[in-house]
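Replying to the earlier thread about multi-chain prediction with a worked example.

Input:
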Amino acid sequence: MMKRPLVFGLCLFWALVTLFPLYWTLVTSVKPPTAVNGGPTYLPYIDFVPTLQAYIDAFSGIRGDFISPFINSSLISITATALSVLFGTMAAYALVRFEFRIRLLSGLIFAALAIGGFLLFNETLGFSRAQAMGLAFLLALPACLLANRLPLPGPVLGNNDVLFWFVSQRMFPPIVTAFALFLLYSEIGREGFKLLDSFLGMVLCYTAFSIPIVVWLMRDFLAALPVEIEEAALVDDVPRIRIFFEIVLPMARPGLIATSLITLAFIWNEFLFSLLLTTSEWQTLPILLSGQNSYRGDEWWAISVAALFGIAPMMGVAMLLAKLMRSGLTLGGIR
Amino acid sequence: MARVELKGVSKAFDEVTVIPALDLEIADTEFVVLVGPSGCGKTTTLRMIAGLEGASGGTITIGGREVTDLRPGLRNCAMVFQNYALYPHMTVADNIGYGMKVRGMPKPEIATRIGEAARILGLEPYLDRRPKQLSGGQRQRVAIGRAIVRQPDVFLFDEPLSNLDAKLRIEMRTEIKNLHRRLNSTMVYVTHDQVEAMTMADRVVVMNEGRIEQAADPITLYENPANTFVAAFIGAPSMNFVPATVVGSDGGLALRLNDGSELAIPQDRWQRYGAAKDRPVTFGLRPEHNSGGGAGEAVITLITRAIEPLGPHTLIIGEAAGHGYTAQVDSHFPAAPDAQVSISLDMTNMHLFDPDSGRAL
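Result:
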């Protein structure tokens, strides 16, 4: 008897906890400076007279350029999300439907040849670092693929190990990758191919960093799909790639949308890579936001406006996609 | 022209052999049903014919073409699955036409074939619906339609009726049988339901533990089961098995049961069972070859345990000579639980099996 009101009360409490910061940002953005710097004020028209001055300031550009980071963030996050969901889903599908057997030793051969090859090309043969890296990779990859076909001794890794390898890339702190990426990008930049502070560079690093999450999420969605539907198509001589695009992807739509949403939010909000890998041209919104209080001090009304610029598009996308994310799409295909 | 031939086909998953070398020949236009308990390898066999499962050994030939290592799409088979396996996001028409579209068939031709299949299967009013708007029977018809338009060498059915309710199952049974007559093509059908097997097949292949126990037409299976497995599997309720000894009596042969009672073996079987004289055997008799009362020559006493009136007849489940025994009697035969009744046996339908190997004598 007492349970329902209790649960309702707890839910209400939690809703308030999550919604209050949003409300606080919203009202702060319409407060005049006096209403911010005095004691706390909560209700517009009662505690203070709202003003749109902060918005006018933001659009007039006196708080820095909002428009180009916004466009940068949109372009980079949409492109990187699309790429990582596409390739990640393909990888997840492969992990669900095909059996991989990877010899640990061939992986070690890759590592040895990549590192050894780099040292050889760079230090002995005098190639530049980026060239040596590229050459070592070209040497190590085919060698390890060939080695995997030989009956090498040692443990053989299966699909779950491959999945773990994907996920493990997200286990260490991102700063580790961020520094390595910065060095890699600047070495490649020295060869005349600009990756630092470029669209391509940002899309590449976000795609690479998002794929593990996509693989991990999509694997479960794809594993839940009935294999018989694909088998029916196989018997009907439908090529695997068309099965993937025309049958599997439509059936996995709810999962694809959920995964895209998570990936998009991650890339949209990502700070560290953007901080290290961009300088001016391709700066993203989070960098702009973090720089807000250094422009003219703690002008919280202005910072709130900037924060809302970062929040609003994501909320819009989430609401739109949630509508599309009706489940039960495979209903009827099988009993 | 599509004979299907399996020669020494085997299947092993890792170290476990599920199907030891198996030989099976399916004639052109034949309707063959693979039947057996779950895990007997019937579905694996079907999937190996379809190419969805690779054979670990042996060769598979369809229409004179060896297909053992061909991918499923090149074997020209059509398969109908137990759970229908329709494309959920496509309409009925698209479901039926998808394969043809992928193979690049001209649109008018696709439309003609969809129309033809829909007409045969009575799907015309539903062509624009999605699978989830259809009933189970209609969904399975769509799956069959998808198979028909392929114009395959051989149709493969994997328990297609198991998800339907009893009434619909009987209707679809007739429908598939009529379809076979009409298309005049080779069909391989897997089921665990012996009634489905018996009613539909030209030839029933009874499988157990990856081996073929017997392959014959339904009546032969019923009348001359090759072993106790087939005898027990075919027919419902199952055949009664009672241990007995063949003894000589009055110049002829008789069966002595454990309780000492003797049942005379009909004269026309004397020669056949002569070699088994003085040896233990398993005596088999179907419940329907019994009748209530002690009128006949071979009579046993049955201690009734349960009585199941079915309408046309009644089953008495009980014990005879210390073994479980079921007899089918007239609906009005007076019987009460835990009482003794006399049952007369129709010994012209008797079977004898070797108690060790289970083979029919």
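Chain B has nine helices and 20 strands.

Feel free to reuse this layout for your own posts.
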